[in-house]
Write a structure and sequence with these properties.
Elements lengths: L2 E3 L2 E3 L2 H26 L4 H36 L4 H13 L1
Antiparallel strand pairs: 1-2
Length: 96
């Protein structure tokens, strides 16, 4: 389980590897779009790739949110720290 305190999350190596792998894939997608622009590719093709990047980022954010809820939020609630609820409410407001 993750350890969450003082706005730092200590993650397992396997979780870090998964997150970094997905970030590297997104980075590659962005470089690909830059190349498409440089190569004067058709706008629709670029927009489709940007949509794929957007979905990749949202998927990664959802993964992080799920881990956060199941670890940090749960941990803090179990220790009686209900201030995490306001943090989560603010997070959801920012995501809209």
């Amino acid at each position: 389980m993750e350890h969450c305190s003082q706005r730092i999350t200590v993650r397992k190596d396997a979780d870090k590897k998964t997150l970094i792998s997905r970030l590297n894939r997104i980075e590659g997608q962005i470089r690909g779009v830059a190349n498409m622009v440089q190569d004067d590719r058709y706008c629709d093709d670029i927009i489709i790739q940007l949509s794929a990047i957007d979905k990749s980022i949202k998927s990664l954010a959802n993964l992080l949110l799920e881990k956060h809820m199941k670890s940090c939020v749960k941990e803090r609630l179990n220790h009686g720290d209900e201030t995490i609820l306001e943090e989560i409410v603010d997070l959801f407001k920012r995501l809209q």
